[in-house]
Amino acid sequence: MMVRFKAYCHAILNKYLSGESIDYRQVISLFLPILIDQAFLVGLSLVNTAMISSSGVAAISAVSMVDSLNMFLVNVFVAIATGGTVVVAQYKGSGNDKMVSKAAASSLSAVTLVAVALSLLVLLFYHPILKVLFGTAEPEVFSHAGTYLVGSCISYTGIAIKEAVNGALRGIGRTRVTLVLSLIMNLTYVLLNVVFVHYLDMGVLGLSVAVNISRYVAAGCALFYLLRMDASLRIQLQDVLEWNFSMFKRIMFIGLPFAAEQLFFNGGKMLTQIYIVSLGTYAIATNAISSVIAMLLQIPSIALSTALVTVVGQCIGRRNIQDARKFTRSFMWLSSGCLLVMGLLLLPFFNPLVRMFSPPAEIMDDLYLIMLVNFLAQIPLWSISFLLPGALRAAGDSRFTSISSMLTMWLFRVVLGYVFGITLGYGVIGVWAAMQLEWGVRGAVFLWRYYGDKWYKHRLIEPTGGK
């Protein structure tokens, strides 16, 4: 019976997760470390949010607000790192190891420069930025937000270096190393939070100190591994310091549209955050806790989305379009199945899960309704809205995916979020309903693109590597 079951599993995996150049064993070895990394990342985020909630509703509200701004800024250089992942993956697929190394070094240089520039910009103008975005927040919330934003932007260069190295390693399928680097950063972060927030009662300031130490420790480990231990990329310090503008151009072809998308996309989320701030501290806390629960539901799907960039990038590097389509289709179905399973696992534990955040009794009903509706909407809509564009981007179709995401975000989520949440008076629930409606519109656009043939006709790299 066991032999038969194993043979059946092998046949299914071989049918849906194997291609001419990548088999299901390689896909699983790529995916599992990313899954573990994502689980730790979200789990530790949940623990940290619960920990800072012990400092009061004002503290959790301030951290939530600034984290939405952090996401807006950090995703800019994460987008550049994704451009590096795509270029590295395509060169890896084409078999040009020399250009793989050049692409990885250039990605690290580009991402670090962007992060340093963003850090300086925010440090210079942090108070006006907070005043424009969160001027209607209560004074205590605003004070905490200023402390956390300054601390966060000082740490940008650290996380940028770590993300750039992780992106290059993911491009060649070395996800076990990226897992170790992420664990170093996140476990250090949690341990320091226990010390600074729980034992020393430093609140938001302790959170800021912890995030800086953990990110720069991870950056140091990432550079040490890349320059001293890695045997695949074979990068030296002078490779990073030497600016290869032709490689920058390839990375930016993917990275800049994606960065612009992240700016506009997260700018729209920031605008909806302003709506929520105007609704009061309880509304901010409801949105913050709901966002963490939504991230829990998405853990396997986000891991699949990250792995798919490498898989499709390498398929496109080999010019194997059939494999690229096959893996994209299989990953979308698998992602939707994971969302269903995660929802069924988490729904029965709603009360103990939410109690970790010590929420006021007044918001419990809203939290449950948002979780239930979000769970049902994610199953058919999340994968086509977030996983599918990753596959298109890995093929070089970054401009279309970015423009589409920006348009649907501002035409649907931002406008309808205001109409549902403020004009019609549905509050946070209305903002979330607008978000899920936007997922459907955006997903339909990406499905239409996927079933055409323009998305894979970009020539990001030369077949022989080039210079």
Tags for this entry?
single chain; globular
On the 0 to 100 scale, the average pLDDT is 83
Structural class: mainly alpha
What Rg do the Cα atoms give? 22 Å
Global geometry: globular
Major sheet characteristics: none
Total number of helices? 17
Our estimate of the beta-strand percent is under 5%
Q: Which residues form runs of ≥5 with pLDDT under 50?
A: none
Order of helices and strands: HHHHHHHHHHHHHHHHH
Number of strands: 0
**N→C terminal distance:** 55 Å
Helix content: over 70%
Question: Helix and strand layout, with pairings?
Answer:
Layout: H1 2-17, H2 24-53, H3 57-94, H4 97-134, H5 139-154, H6 156-171, H7 175-199, H8 203-229, H9 237-241, H10 245-278, H11 281-297, H12 299-317, H13 321-346, H14 350-355, H15 364-394, H16 398-423, H17 427-450
Helix pairs in contact: 2-3, 2-7, 2-11, 2-12, 3-4, 3-5, 3-6, 3-10, 3-11, 3-12, 4-5, 4-6, 4-10, 5-8, 6-7, 6-8, 7-8, 10-16, 11-15, 12-13, 12-15, 13-15, 15-17, 16-17
Outline of the structure:
With 467 residues, the chain is mainly α. It is built from 17 helices and no strands.
Describe this structure in words.
The protein has 467 residues and is mainly α. The chain has helices spanning 2-17, 24-53, 57-94, 97-134, 139-154, 156-171, 175-199, 203-229, 237-241, 245-278, 281-297, 299-317, 321-346, 350-355, 364-394, 398-423, 427-450. Helix 13 packs antiparallel against helix 15. It is globular, with a radius of gyration of 22 Å. The mean pLDDT is 83.
